[in-house]
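Exercise 7.
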Amino acid sequence: MIDEVSFRVQAGNGGKGSVHFRREKYAPRGGPDGGDGGDGGSVYFVSDPNLTTLRFFSGKDRFAAEHGRRGGMARKHGENGEDIELRVPVGTVVEVVSGKDERKGALFADLDARDMRVCVARGGHGGRGNWYFRSPTNTTPRTAEPGTPGEARWLRLSLKVLAQVGLVGLPNAGKSTLLSILTAAKPAIAAYPFTTVSPNLGVLTEYSASLVIADIPGLIEGASRGKGLGIAFLKHIERCELLVYVLFPQDWVLAVVPGERKIGETIWKQREQLRAELAAFSPRLLQLPALMVFNKIDLLSQEEIESIRLFFRTKRVALIPISGATLTNIEGLRRAIVRQYNNVHNSK
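Solution. The predicted structure, written as tokens, is:
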């Protein structure tokens, strides 16, 4: 998935005004009649709901609109340069940067709705012809304007997926399996970490509600500093309105003798690790409403599952135990997601 590109946009320059004098059979010494130059074309971005990546821009360094044409005789206005429209996915963020390799820039536009049209480089104005400069004291002006230059700038585009609900967790937490069960999505699923290398989207339909859920690639320690897939995927949860933390018993935990696992404390530390990475990237993410889900309960005994719930209860955090493999309590999770999302909107 190509979700970040940089390139230069160049609007067209305004056309030159014309210096011309009317010359006809019965008017050999006619006055000035040089026309104005045409305006340069502008560059626009248009958000298209049918696009999902920025692949079209990959490998391209420059997009330029046409220049305005020169003014003509008989006060003929020069032809305007043609605008260009570049279609981008909904959710594209546009920043102005100093060059192709610059990573940080100033926010220029956020195309977070369909069919938005934003001018990113305005074409120059055409210059005025010598007809404009005529006067009682200057009946033969030999002056015309050259036209103003079009705007040019380097832009950095990054795509942030538009989803109401985001699934976050460590690699191999079972988020992709969960997404495929909750929605009709068909993400890549395998029993090894980092199966998901770009966000997957699916639509949860329940009780007349229709929510877009994003499966975000697994977080690892240092993700907020770019480690692993890093910021390349953390940015995708910034637009979510509800987070679902997917916790699970890791292989090294399962390898410990059951009576010595201290599993409640271990799973709590996993939750804190995820929250620490989110906070390091953007503290606002910790303010989002959240559900805590404990996946893969089919790998534990009932006593261990209950001990984990009790540990979380002492921390005043509710935990929803599920199994994506056996579909245990999946319907309960569906209802919890819809109920929590509705509560968020009803409180606004």
